[in-house]
Sequence to fold (1151 residues):
Amino acid sequence: MVKASLVDIQHVGKSYGGVQALRDVSLSIAPGEVHALCGENGAGKSTLIKIITGSVVPDTGQVMVDGVPLKLGDVREAEDMGIGVIHQESSAFLHLNAEDNIFVGREPKILGGMFLNRREMRLQTRALLDRLGEPIDQRRELLEMTVAQRQMVSIARALSRKVKLLIMDEPTASLSARETEVLFRIIRQLRSEGVSMLYVSHRMEEVFDLSDRVTVFRDGRWVATEPTKSMTTQSLIQKMVGREIGELGRRHDTGIVPGPVVLETQNLSRGRAFQDISFTVRAGEIVGLAGLVGAGRSEVAQAIFGVDDYDSGEVRVNGNPIRKHSIKESMAAGIALVPEDRQHLGLVLPMSVGANLTMAVLKSLTRGGFISGRLQFELSEDLMRGLMIKAASTSIATETLSGGNQQKVMLGKWLAPNPKVLLLDEPTRGIDVGAKAEVHKLVRELAGKGMATLLISSELPELLSLSDRIVVMRQGRISGELQGPDATQEKLLELALPKT
Amino acid sequence: MKFGTGKIFHRLDQQRELGVLLLLVLTVAIVSIRDSNFLLLGNIRDMLVGAAPTLIIGCGMTLVIVTGEIDISVGSLMGLCAAVMGQLTSTTDGRLGLPVWVGVAAMLSLGALVGLINGLLVTVGRVPSIIVTLGMLTALRGITQRVIGPTWIQDMPPGLRYFGTGTIFGIPVSVLTAIVVVVGFIIMTRQTPLGRRIYAVGSNVRSAHLAGISQTRIKLAVFIITGILTAIATLVSATQLQVIDPGFGKSRELLIVTCVVVGGTSISGGRGTIIGSALGALLLSIVGTVLIFMKLGPSASYWERAIHGAFILLAVLADHLAPESSSEAHA
Amino acid sequence: MIRPRDFPYWHEVVLAVLLVGLMIWAGVTEPPRRNTFVSPGTQLQLSGNMWEMALLTVPMTLIIITSGIDLSVGSAMALSAVALGETYNHGFSVWIAAAVAIGMGLWAGFFNGLFISKLHVHPLIVTLATLAAFKGIAEGYSEGVSVSKFPESFRMIGEGTILGLPIPGIIFMGVVISAAVILIKTRWGRYLYSMGHNETATRFSGVPVDKIKLALYTLSGGMAGLAAVIYGARRDSAKADVGDGMELDVITAVVLGGTSIFGGRGNMLGTLLGVLLVHETRELVSWRWNQAELNLIVIGLLLIGSVLLNRLLSVRGRKG
Fold:
């Protein structure tokens, strides 16, 4: 290392109630470096971020900033030392305007600290936003801004604190491709201005696109730190997983012939969310639904499942139209939706694994009006075995399981009613590589048994490898359909990106 | 944007405040057309005097609700403050007859103390504020009855009565106090760090924590502020009366919450303005006066409660029917 | 097999111990006379004061389990009482009047339920509004007039006994046992807990969440109607001040019984113990000191204290 490091993390360890989240981890970040941090879920990335930003006190070790030890467990101190963080979800104050968002907590004051120095706030905000080169109305409440604009405000907030190290935790998770481009431009600009970045992302292409060096964590341990140039996707994944994983085979190479049409939507429209959505899914077929975040994919899936209403159009299962806006009817017709958000939409985390697995079929488990404990237990056990869910028992609280196992519980819950149509919304989001492979295998097996599957995913490799056909949405409309050798990342993006 | 509505409604989409203002003007216009006596100076004065305690406490209540909490103990706290004040200063029935300033100081400290206890139970004890203040509502009413005892409080010293009956430049002290408090809180919420931090906590507790803002301190502050404002409101309202009975302030909390909700403050926190609550208070006060004007007799006060409840439901309906804010971002 | 800290009924054990302790203390400290507080005769007589509150805790428990709340139960009772009195006064049979009263309660609860389930307004704000509105309508309509002199046959509902058991008590036991069976054994019970933890995920599972809510609040209103009828029969009085402050006793008993105000946890056994504890405390205070205001203070502090205790216990449970 030529330059002295800006941030030196030395032998940091942390355990939560007997579980070692981080074990003797050391890591140094150079000034003006984009340092990627990779690892499966539960590898200890978020714990490390929490320690550096002062919201968690480590059991052992210390963090040096510019050679000075950081007072640990103190959010303000970390900020004073020049450490800023842009969180996964918008961490801003939606009811405050951009100016207030940037300065709240350490406002410029006048009249002996009694009042805000509004003039100073306005001028500084203007200067910061100019520096980022993004036009944002700084007097607007964040509620009225896009996710990307809110993120800009968060970055401006960090810059206002003379940030030296900016931590980005999955910053592109809910950005469109164009917004991602803008963010990358800013990241590169800040790097050239000497700001260091710790970049956490599950998206490999971003890591290779942006970073100078990559550090890999596995199971709370440091595995490797290497220059990005010396790595390949394969070698990086191998380090993350600790074993070799072959490239996923192309689904359309397998030569399975799909059966009759099971799910059919015709001219489905709802306001500005989606218009004129018509497509079919055959038995045994996996149809990918691609598009940028905000293109209306989840909205379509939820409309088909009856969670939300639609204005016009029709959904048919095996040729029979189903009444709109009725989950009950959709379920009776054999549709199941595995939603994208486990925590809020998919599972009742404090309840037991058994209760979650049987939630959608409880009626069929009642005898004489009462839930049969035996039937519930048998079904839960079957599902746990079939899906290889790792849990001590069916009566354990679901929140104690790992993300991947929770995901499998959610899948099991929707396989229990034996659906004919499976709507999968981001079925592998935020789960580790091993669990991901298991989910992929399962989806293929189900299709092999005749399941009509609609797969929504933001990960292009996943879509391309699993789908027989890919329907692409752009700004609420279907912009095209890809099949066979036509289905490439480039063509897909071309259809998904907004026309200028 | 230099002056007038541009300054007060600094964003065009603060429709709620404008809506309430419109309703206010409309009500006054219709009633005064039907009865020209309505807009007499004496009437306006009575109306404002009646609204003063609601306006004053409404400022604190707005802040409490903005932080995502609620305080329904204010009515009972008014009763207890009045009882303590009277008990200390009244000269008859064996009461203490202490100087006025002692009574005032005791009452203000009492308000702050109850606010502090509410705040501590909510923040440190992590008991939901609706439960804390519902319990407090009952307990304080019981304590008030204890303090006052069998004979109601009479003969408060003239120095104290001045706060309720006196005028400065012809304006009642209570109305003046309300104006000062409302203006002060408008400035406080907009132009001070504390004000912005209150909204920050209401908007996003986690981020506020990460920004180094202590949720505990902010919530303690708003509960204490509300307690003190309740004491001030009692000082300018209880002193209007010849006699203080143990029911003083009863159900006032409902009126105040109604004003705040009608004025556009969101019960889930983060959103709401002092000006909105003040307009809400004026609107409800006018409605009350109109009811009396309609010569409903004693049942006017019965129906008033029903109308307050209806107003909350209408405000909620208005929120529901209003078009969604234009926050839907397009990629 | 079950470790002590996994035993799920510690809260109920603590309540039972408190209740027994209270009764022992009351018995030991009272000077001997003909009718002591703890004597069965006295207890039976005083139990009359409990039934309305007890009935209302049943739907309230179910509602709080779904993380809702109903502050309007007292006012719905007042509305039903006025409906009872006014209908009877207009010359209808008392039984028709009772039906109208229960119908009025159902309607009031249905009204709450509509706002909560169809418009998705927070139950706190809806029932705070109807707490005022129902009471205002009851007072405004009746103008404070009290109706009494109901026929003997009707008064039996409140005062009569079957095999020595008070009729309202038998009704209550029926209601509480049905609720317990629903909670423990049926899928509807499962759904209630699930809604309390995560309403959206429950909705996504195909559970008719809105219908359940509508039913719960309607049931709560209907129970308030029934309570008003029993009160009317017991005290021979129907007036707009019936049920004043009832919401406080009811919520206190329910949360004291271990139902989490944040939803997802609670059971009928706990509620039953909570009801008894609130009732005995209240009656003991009246018996000993005969001061109404002391009761207000005790119940207010009991409410805060019980949630505080619940929080402390659950925090420890989580950590263990």
